[in-house]
Amino acid sequence: MSGGLDMLAIEHRMALKALLTPRQVEVIECLCLGYGQRATAQRLHLSRATVRDHTDAALRNLAHHQDVVDALIAVSETIRKQALLTSPRTAGTPGQSDQDPPAPPIATGTP
User: Fold this and answer.
1) CATH number for the domain whose boundaries are 3-86
2) Any idea where the domains of the chain sit in the sequence?
3) For labelling, which of 10, 18, 59, 99 has a CA lying 20 to 30 Å from the CA of 71?
4) pTM for this prediction
């Protein structure tokens, strides 16, 4: 990651920590990196129900801070793209869960 991207990631992680519990931050970070609920649960040694609970609680907390959410989404997409470009995809890595559906394609506005 570039120095500027590292700094943005640090700033946005600090913003998350101010709004969420440490465990909610861990869950959201895994999900933002592309891990599905099952992979996140395995990685953090939680049940899938607990991952869903942490996700729901985090989203409720973040709903009151839309500007922060918008910035976090933009940074997480950049971090995720960078991670996918720099690391080989193997079993157990982001995007490789056999239980999670693939992400829908992004609409480009052309048919």
Assistant:
1) 1.10.10
2) 3-86
3) 99
4) 0.54
